[in-house]
Write a structure and sequence with these properties.
The chain contains eleven helices and nine strands. It is an alpha/beta fold. It has a single domain, classed as Aldolase class I (TIM Barrel).
């Protein structure tokens, strides 16, 4: 069904840790030196929750498998000290539970996790995510075991088997070719055809980061982004939203080619993955995409609310925030 509006969500962006086993050539988020390693503490986290503003989503992003990373001892000591935890999933689950208690719907992207860990996180997440990035094997991923396309596709499939509303996407400009974009989109479409769990596909351009091996590589051209959005809309079923990040793209021209969602923006936190690209405000977004209508959604899309693809733990918050269409309630009658 064709949408007659463009959606976005309001979130707080929570970088749980930048300790990561992968060493992607383009990533500026991962800690490269011991002094740069970071794990969010409980005090800092609670301060974020208390200053969340109008956000309804808690977006949790982490490095992948920090227990197996070069700075694993730092990570392990910190999560044990902060919450008596021994794994990323255990610690993040505690943070999600606190976020729910403060009125936020969690969305976790922790990199590769096992089926058992997906099951553990499912009840405390309104949706989850993992960027496929590409089905191609690239030089940029030489030192990144978690970026094996087969491993990523397997996890996306396992999320489908568990009926988890899921976000994925492709990263454009990291060494893949045009035919790889099509193969990647077709792989996503194939999984969705079996499980029906993909709620949105992000088309995200590479942005060069200082002190990374790919610092001198250029971002993809506007015409390439246009071509991929056009292909994504033709290949994917209408029920899957095509998302373009408004701090990294010119959204209006991509909306005209089939994009229908602008992802999450935050009033209180930066984009820790792309800190050099500030979020636009809601008012700026409305101006930039006019005459298209902008409407706020939750981290779980309306069709999954109707299917009740969420836990009883999240039910009160979804009832409180969702209107009759499954979008964000703005009639002044939030149900408690």
């Amino acid at each position: 069904m064709k949408r007659n509006y463009i959606t976005f969500s309001k979130n707080i962006f929570i970088p749980v840790t930048n300790v990561c086993r992968n060493a992607c050539s383009y990533c500026g988020f991962r800690a490269r030196r011991p002094e740069d390693a970071y794990v969010i503490g409980m005090k800092e986290f609670l301060q974020l929750l208390q200053s969340r503003g109008a956000a309804t989503e808690a977006l949790f992003t982490t490095g992948e498998s920090p227990e197996d990373a070069y700075f694993s001892s730092f990570f392990n000591d910190r999560v044990k000290e902060e919450a008596g935890c021994s794994t990323l999933v255990e610690y993040t689950k505690k943070l999600c539970t606190l976020a729910i208690a403060h009125g936020l719907l969690p969305h976790c992207n922790l990199g590769i996790v096992s089926t058992e860990e997906l099951e553990e996180l499912r009840d405390v997440n309104a949706s989850m995510g993992l960027m496929l990035e590409t089905t191609a094997k690239l030089e940029a991923h030489t030192n990144s075991p978690g970026k094996d396309p087969k491993v990523r596709l397997t996890m996306i499939e396992e999320a489908g088997k568990l009926s988890i509303p899921f976000t994925t996407g492709i990263l454009v400009g990291i060494g893949e070719g045009r035919e790889d974009h099509i193969r990647s989109l077709e792989a996503i479409q194939s999984l969705h055809a079996r499980y029906g769990h993909i709620q949105e596909v992000i088309i995200q351009p590479f942005w060069p980061k200082p002190l990374t091996p790919m610092w001198n590589r250029k971002s993809p051209r506007v015409e390439e982004m246009r071509e991929i959005v056009r292909a994504a809309r033709a290949l994917l079923p209408d029920e899957i939203a095509i998302q373009v990040p408004p701090n990294l793209t010119s959204p209006k021209e991509l909306i005209e080619l089939g994009a229908s969602d602008l992802g999450g923006i935050s009033e209180r936190t930066v984009d820790y993955i792309n800190p050099e690209a500030p979020w636009p405000t809601e008012e700026e977004l409305r101006r930039r995409i006019a005459p298209f209508e902008l409407r706020e959604r939750l981290p779980i899309y309306p069709r999954f609310i109707k299917k009740r693809w969420y836990s009883e733990l999240l039910s009160p918050l979804i009832a409180r925030y969702a209107d009759e269409e499954g979008l964000r309630r703005h009639d002044g009658i939030e149900r408690f």
